[in-house]
Structure formats: C-alpha cells, structure tokens
Amino acid sequence: MYAQVIVDIVHERVARTFSYAVPEGLSLAPGQRVSVPFGRRAIEGVVLSLTETCDLPPEKVKPVTAALEDYPAILPPLIALAQEMAEQTHAPLAETLRLMLPAQMRGGRVHVKTETAAALAVPAGQAREAAANQGRSRKRSLLLTLLLDEEAHAVSELSELVNDPLPALRQLAEAGLVTLAEREVLRTPGTPLRETTPDPILTGDQEEALSLMLPGTRDGSGRYLLHGVTGSGKTEVFIRLVRDCLERGRGAIILVPEIALTPQMVDWFRGRFGPVAAVLHSRLSAGERFDEWRRIRRGDARVVIGARSAVFAPLEKLGLIVVDEEHETTYLSDRHPRYDARDIARSRCGREGAALVLASATPSILSFARARRGDYRLIELPQRVLGRPMPSVEIVDMRRELDNGNRSIFSRLLAAELDRCVEKKEQAMLLMNHRGYSSFVSCRACGQAVKCPDCDLSMTYHLGGGDGLLHCHYCGRAEPVPALCPACGSRHIRFFGAGTQKVEEELRRRYPGVGIVRMDIDTTSGKDGHAKLLDEFRSGRAQLLVGTQMIAKGLDFPRVTLVGVVAADMTLNLPDYRARERTFQLLTQVAGRAGRGVLPGRVIIQTYKPEDPTILTAAAQDYRSFFTEEFQRRRQSFYPPFSVLTRLLVESPSEAEAQKTAEALSARVDALLNEHPIWRRKVLTQIVDQPGARFLRGKTRWHVLLKLAAGPDADALCAALTDLARETRDALEGRAEVFFEYNPVTML
Prior knowledge:
Elements: E1 2-7, E2 18-21, E3 33-38, E4 41-51, E5 66-67, H1 76-89, H2 93-98, E6 114-120, H3 124-132, H4 138-146, E7 153-154, H5 155-158, H6 166-174, E8 178-184, H7 204-219, E9 223-228, H8 234-247, E10 251-255, H9 262-273, E11 277-280, H10 286-298, E12 303-306, E13 318-324, H11 341-352, E14 355-360, H12 365-373, E15 377-381, E16 392-397, H13 398-403, H14 412-423, E17 427-431, E18 440-443, E19 460-464, E20 466-471, E21 478-480, E22 493-496, H15 500-510, E23 516-519, H16 529-538, E24 544-547, E25 560-565, H17 569-572, H18 579-591, E26 602-607, H19 613-619, H20 623-637, E27 643-652, H21 655-675, H22 677-680, E28 683-689, E29 695-696, E30 699-709, H23 712-732, E31 737-742
Parallel strand pairs: 9-14, 9-15, 10-12, 10-13, 11-12, 13-14, 16-26, 17-24, 17-25, 23-24, 25-26
Antiparallel strand pairs: 1-2, 1-4, 3-4, 3-5, 6-7, 6-8, 18-22, 19-20, 20-21, 27-30, 27-31, 28-30, 29-30
Helix pairs in contact: 3-4, 7-8, 18-19, 21-23
C-alpha cells in the first residue's frame, strides 16, 4: 500500500503529492497526519489518498516514518474544501490544508495536559474499615472517607479539603488501598458551565421566521438572509435552529465577526446546550485551542462558536452554518491565502448538505442584492422583542457647537445626557472609532504630519506610563514625539484629533469615582481581555463604556439607555467606495445598543455633516431607503455588485523593483486582453499607481487596479490574473511579492 502525501512545505516547487510506502502493521486513512522522510530531514505531511500501486521503483519509495495521530485530523469534506481553495487562490495545497488545523498541532508544540487522580483500589467496605484503623493519621482516614464514592478524584480537588494530600495518598497506595494515575484534563475556555436556562417565549415574528426556515434547514437546501432590526431576537432564532439540528443528530457552526462577541455568544449557547458548545478563536491559549479542536473532532462538542477561522471546524454531520453580522469586513482574510469566510461557509454547506443563514440588522449591499435576486430567501424581523421601541436618535451639528464656543469633544446635548445617565445610575456607551489619544501629530509651521518611517501613514499619539509615544497602527512601530518637525525643523509641534484614550480621559475628569471601561485593541490584547472588560460593564461595576467599532455590534446590555457617537464623520470620509455603507452600518449598529431593556434608549450622533443622507437614514434606522439610494449610486458609478474590482498588488523593499514590476504587470495585462478581445470589453478602467499607502510595513507598494463588468467572462479573466500573479511572483524569486485581490477590503 502507498500513501500519497502533501508535505507541510509552502512552496510551488513541492506543491504536489509524494508517494510513500505504508509499513506493515501501520493503518492509515486520508486526512491523517504523518511524519515522512523528505530529503535529509523528517517532515510532517497529510495523507491525501492511498493506492495499491506506485509509478516509482520500489527501492526509490521511502516508507512513512509514523502516524502522528491514530485518526484522520482533516475530514474528507475539509480536504476537498482545501483543494478548492488552493485552486481558486492558486495557493499551494499545503497552505490551505494548514487552515484546517490549529497552528499549535504543527511541529508537535502542544502537549496533552494531565493531572494526578486518586481512586479506591479496594471495595468501599474494606476502605471504610481501613479508614477506622488509621490510628493517629487523621489525614489518611479522611482521604479514604472522601474516596468512598468510588469515583476518581483529582489530587488538586482533594487538596481543597485536605492540606497537602499527596504524601498521604502515596502511603495509602503503597498499602494497596488507593491507586494513583495520570489522566487527561481538557482545558475549557470561557465561562464555567452553569445550569441550562429556560427558553423564552417567542414573538410572532420569530415564530414566523422559524416556520419559514425550518424546512430548508432540515433538508439542507436553505440559504437565508435573516434581516432583523437591532434587538429583534435574531440570536434566539439561531438557538432554535441549532436545537433542531442537534435533535436530528447534526451539528452547527456559529460565526461572529469579532472576538469581543464570542464570550457573550458562548455564554448564551452554553446556557442552553451545556458542554456540547465549543469555542474557537485566535485569542485562546495554544492548549485551549488544541483541546477545543479535539472535543469537536471527537464529537463531544457539536456546536462551534467562533470568529472567521471557525468555519474550518472539524465538525462531522454538519447541519447548519450561521454567519452573524454578515456585513462585517472581518470575515475577509487579509493574509494569503485570502478568503471570505462567507464564501467558504456557502461552499461547505453545499458540499456537506447543510443550511446557511446570513444574519444582520444592516446586511451588506451585495448580500441584500443577492436576496432580491433570489440567491437567498429574505426573512425579516421588523420589530424588537416584547414590543420595545427603537431608541430615539438626535443628530448634533458640531459646526454650531464650535460657533457657540464649545471646543469640547462632547456637544452640550451629549454632556447633559451623560450627566443625567450618571446621576440616575444608568449605563452609557460612547463610540470613538479611533484608538489612541490624538489622531495625528502635525507641524503648525509647514503642515507636515509625522508619518511612520516604514509606512506612508500618519502615526497616532498614545498616552503611556510616563511620556507618550507615537504608534503606527499598521506595523506596530513606536517612537517618541519629535521636539522638532522632521520636515522643516520648527518647534511648533501640535496634537490634533481625538481617540478613545482622550475620550476616556475626559470622562474620568468629568465623573471622578465612576467606573469607566475602554475597549480597543490596546486594552483587549491580553488573554480573555474582551471577556474581562465586558464582564465589568455587564455586572454594573462600570457605568460608562467607551470603545472603537468592536462595541458597536451584537452586544446586549439591558441597562444601557444612552449611546453617543463622538465623531460620525470618521468613516464617512474614507477614500473607499464602501465608506457610506460602512458608516450606515456602524451608526445603525451602535444605535441599536440603546434601550434593549425595560428603560427606553436615546442616541446622540455628533457630526459635521448633519445633512448627509447616510447619517439621516442611519438615524432613522431606515435600511431600505439607504439600500435603494446606495444601490442606485453604485449602478451609476459601476461599483460592485455591478462590477468587480480586482488588483495585482506588488510589494518590495526596493522602490524601483516595485514600480518596475507593476509596470511590467500592466503591460502583461494589456497583452492578455489583446489575446482575448472578449475580456478587453469587460475592463472598464485600468490604473497603474501607488495605492493609499506608498509604504506599508517597510515595503513599497504599487498596484494594477482593474474595474471589470461583472459576469462569467470577468470570472475567467480573474482566474487568468491569478495565474499571472503567481507566475510573476515565482519569477521574481523573492525580490518582490505579487498578490491578486478580488474586491479588496482596503486600498492601502
């Protein structure tokens, strides 16, 4: 028997299977990880298939060294998914197979955690008699009494009742009364398991949604877009669909866009389903991620909650994938191989006969357009649960605030509402979608902003323990604030704009003694950082929560009565055709955090453009009007979904190499279009230029940007452009990197 193995080396030159002989007595299966000789070293690999014949002479076929597990680590549907991704992204199969496994499994870096457990080695009656005959050793007597239930108890558990029990247990083991053994301990992240909570009574809208969705989820044909206003009870619909899956012996995956949402979602699902719910995301420790993955793979956990990468969870008998807050761009991977978790979910559901539910209060323009076209069935929840009203929303014109002499980051209305909220012991949330203290540092003499030496972007000022530093939010570089302008030598260095740190500082100045929580990347970077801060706010120990977009979606705090948007224009002015869509989504979502309990909610949006239609429709929570206007604007400007944006992105440490490669790529694209006139007609625009950031992470960037008319011919051209990117990258041999991007997340 021969094993066809993909070795764990990401390189085009070895992007194929290698044949290895299966030694006598070793049983292997497709998807199993193995150790194999490769050149002069041993390397890990994945068995793709087993054959009875091999084209090579027997003496040239080396044997498999060992199986790394006694079960297939990658299920057959996930092998097929990895192969599909490798073809679509033109990445080596070894690279897409890595997505199917926790990174900690590679290289044997994770070990099974064990603990010492004690159990009786004799019948309970004999142990009871021995306990009475222990003489002066009360510790041995007590330990025997504790073990009379004939269950194995961890020594750490016994130490809570008996001081330093191990020496006494060893004496009892030597006497043949007790056995000591090592047993495996699973590291379970998140909140401790608690008793299951009862089901709430469904609203009429929820019952109708379930009646429409259950037939399609049961036969695996359902493709749904669940559009419900904030607070309409979409999560309860998910829970009922998942329960139906479990009752039919199938499992479910629930994707959330932010790690910040994971603790809350895990708590809800564990509260209803107990230990069958598992969690997967990048902030787990190596051991926790490994153990959760194994619980899923063994079938002990049948509901998986997690961020983007959880779509690859090794769940057998998959029945349902839910993509919550489906509009979020965090479902798009910005690293090679670049993938969209929503597309992966759709592909996996089709392959495994599972249903797909996309859900959002503010669906993406593309998803809503697909629902109107019939690709998804649109299900709507137009009312909040229990008949609770939507929050009242007021827009404050910050231009008038300046005219009236108010230079604070808070308008007079928002300041007054914060005072009222604090006085009444209610809770408030403030959105400032920029972390740090000041947005940028600039010279008043020449107007030059201080930029990162490795990135063509302004650095942000952060307060620290002592003197503050300038930080680059793209490469992580930190530098002191210059005393003199790097451009003109002037001493007139000033700080401009505001970030979450500045908002927090102002709140602490105004409300001394009041609990305040700040949530951004800086405060949530540690293990369980999100969960600890959210628990502080949920428990009421903190009254005010300030944060970036991570607080804007999905969170449910019944005592929040006030939401303030400090700077609504921040995303509206981004140089991106999706700026209006993202602004509408952000404002609508954060407004939905107010008034989710018995007390009504109020939202205050501060802006310098109060007349902007995007802000007006968000304030009115009017998705349909926004969609109609934005859809028409994109039709007129030929933006997606009426076109496809693609780019060949070039990165190189050498400025000359990047430009030269981009210009050569553009010429090759022209030649390709001349060979296929039908493709030429699909190209609406073609630009060779430097993107939004000329430098990023120490590399010069150029791109060839093409806008294509959507359709099958555009798909064929995209495949050819992907091949072109790969061929160019291979030919450059490391002098430059070339990536193909389909509807790129950012133009930096």
